[in-house]
Amino acid sequence: MPACPPAILNLADVAAAFIDPTRESQAVFRKVMDAVARPGTIQDLAFAPDAPQGLDRAAGAVALTLFDFETPVWLDPALRGGTAEGWMRFHCGCPLTDDPVKAAFALITDALAAPELAAFNQGDAKYPDRSTTLVVQLPALDGGPRVTLTGPGIRSEASLALAGLPNGFWEQAQANQAKFQFGVDLIFVAADRLTALPRSTRVTIQGN
User: Fold this and answer.
1) Is the domain 21-205 a CATH 3.40.50.11310 member?
2) How many CB atoms lie within 10 A of CB 53?
3) Among 11, 44, 54, 103, which is 20 to 30 Å from 80 by CA?
4) pTM summary value
5) What number of CA atoms fall less than 13 Å from residue 41's CA on the CB side?
6) Residue 181, preceding bond cis, omega within 30 degrees?
7) Measured distance CA(194)–CA(179) in Å, rounded
8) Domain ranges, ordered by start, for the chain
9) Is the dihedral of CA 148, 35, 100, 46 positive or negative?
10) Residue segments in the chain with a per-residue pLDDT below the cut of 50
């Protein structure tokens, strides 16, 4: 499917982004890389600017840092045509796509209605790193069913208890890891906090 057509943009309605783009984007990038390197740890992005309606502070900071004109983005339908879409088009220059397989990134704010992980680009034998990275905005990074994490970057084991994920999500995550080195990577955000689940991390569902 073709990329989503650009929405009409009223610059007067576009909120500000980083005041010092180089320094602030580098700071956010380090937080993202720390989260990916140490799955299950929570990173604080309280220093980031406010994001437009529909996006939490952490989600906006990740978009400003990782999205650019070379990264097609699958945008949650709840955000399309709104202030968040215009904000990202202006500050990131990222093209949007309706096709999850063509997305370098996916920005999801309604996890319950999102496509399954297998619907996104899984990478291929030549370019496994070109799979989709999903940025999933949740109501909280705690308070949900707890899972145990093991694998690279985890000394013994870690855990997550993310709130707001659909039933069966952790089974999808297990299937995603089983395909390593293929599969998607996940960044979870809520308010001004962030954590990550790279495809190399093994998930054990407690009680199973």
Assistant:
1) yes
2) 10
3) 44
4) 0.91
5) 14
6) yes
7) 25
8) 21-205
9) positive
10) 1-3, 5-9, 11-12
